[in-house]
Amino acid sequence: MELIRANGRKLQDIRAIDISMNPIKYADGSATFKIGNTSVVAYVQGPHEILSKKGKYTDKGILNVKFFMTNFSTPQHKTNVKKNIRMTEFGNLLKSVFEGVILLKNYQNSQIDLHICVLENDGGYKSAAFNAATLALVDAGISLSQYVVSMNSGFLESFTPAIDLQQTEEKKHNCDFLISYLPKTKKIAFIELDSKKLSIKEVNSLVELAIEGCMHINEIIDQYIRENIENNLHYFAYE
């Protein structure tokens, strides 16, 4: 008999996903990605002229990434130095991953600013940040070699692997695994494991589960983007 989690989901069930593109009208591109009660918004400004004099003339574009979490997105409403350092580090990680898929050579002497904000966190905010960023870049018309999609997994009772952990599951079982995946080339862009010592077999089970989740997210994102393009074409056709 398959284990049912405390929230009523099966081990391989992903929470309800809600996507919205262009929620921020003043930005060049924006998107929200919601999974369960976790909500992340991302927006893009650019490409525009490089603001720094030092990098004024470049043979490829410059990507700037800022990641932050609202004080009310977590139970701890205090701002502290460690939290700011973690946000900066994760922002640098996002920058590194997306520099690998944005065709920056198409944006000579230009700058792209990507802002990502966690509005509410009930687990899986990092994977939601990757997904929201991909959607915002697409909405801004930024050239990508492929999507970056992400999903987390972890262990529940008796080292039972499960996908899309909520915050209570992450804290209770002290195991969280994150993968950012490139579905077109079937390569892992980033991997993070926050847990005690695990065997190779246990890690592999988390990898397989997270990649399955990434492919599911990719299907949802791809379908949404295609439908959004079709709707926009119909709109302009009747203008």
**Strand tally:** 9
Mean pLDDT: 88
Radius of gyration in whole Å, from Cα? 18 Å
Name given to the CATH architecture: 2-Layer Sandwich
The sequence of SSEs as H and E is: EEEEHEHEEHEEH
Biggest pleated-sheet summary: 5 strands, mixed
Strand order of the largest sheet: 1-2-3-5-4
Helix content range: 25-40%
Give the domain tally.
Answer: 1
Description:
With 239 residues, this protein is α+β, with helices and mostly antiparallel strands. The chain has a single domain (17-237), classed as Ribosomal Protein S5, domain 2 (2-Layer Sandwich), CATH 3.30.230. It is 33% helix and 28% strand. It is built from 4 helices and 9 strands, in the order ββββαβαββαββα. The chain has helices spanning 81-99, 125-139, 167-173, 200-237, and strands at 17-21, 29-35, 38-49, 62-69, 110-120, 149-155, 161-163, 176-182, 187-194. The termini are far apart. The mean pLDDT is 88. One of its GO terms (cellular component) is nucleolus. One of its GO terms (molecular function) is RNA binding. It holds the Pfam family RNase_PH.
Layout of secondary structure:
Layout: E1 17-21, E2 29-35, E3 38-49, E4 62-69, H1 81-99, E5 110-120, H2 125-139, E6 149-155, E7 161-163, H3 167-173, E8 176-182, E9 187-194, H4 200-237
Parallel strand pairs: 4-5
Antiparallel strand pairs: 1-2, 2-3, 3-5, 6-7, 6-8, 8-9
